[in-house]
Structures are given as structure tokens and as C-alpha cells.
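From the shared-data thread, chain only:
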Amino acid sequence: MENNSRKRRRLSAEEKWSIYQECEQSGVKIGEVLRKHGLYSSDLQLIRREVKEAALERLSRSRPGRKKAAVVPVEERDQLKRELEEKEKALAELSVMFTTLKKKVHLE
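Structure, as C-alpha cells:
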């Protein structure tokens, strides 16, 4: 007994994408493309659905990369700059005091 049923082969993602692109070109007869690849219109519907779902999933993901810097109000930024300057000045004074004490210890 002869088996005339069509054996379904698994298409790779690249093959599906290629078939999808080929069918979406203007002026292309979809029936010819499907026959060329041994597919049915239901196969093309499935490919189109997969392409749409994959595109939507990919587009909905958050984008990798650097996050945009948070916007700091001008007043807060100016206050932070003043605090930094005060701390740098205090650090410089402590550094001078430390150096002076260090010299005194070595002299005694």
C-alpha cells in the first residue's frame, strides 16, 4: 500500500522569515511561492502569526543599554555642588592638620 500523505518538514526560523518576506513582496503570486516550498495556505497563516507574535514580543521588551540619567532639579544640583565644595574644603583643612601633626611627631 502506497502512502501518499505529505511528510511535514520543520522549517527553520530563517526559512520561515525568507518565505514570509517572499510572500509579502508586491506582485508576487502567493500560490506559486507556497507550491515552490511545498506549503499550504494554512502554513503561511501560521508563519504570519509567528512573525507577528515574535515582533510584538521583541518590541515590548525593555531596551538594553544605558538608562537615561535622572533629571535633577537645578536647586537640588546647586545644593549638592555647595555641599561637595564644603566637604572638599574640610578635607583640605584636615589634610593640612594631619601633615602638621605628622611633622611634629617626627621632630620629637
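The chain has four helices and no strands.
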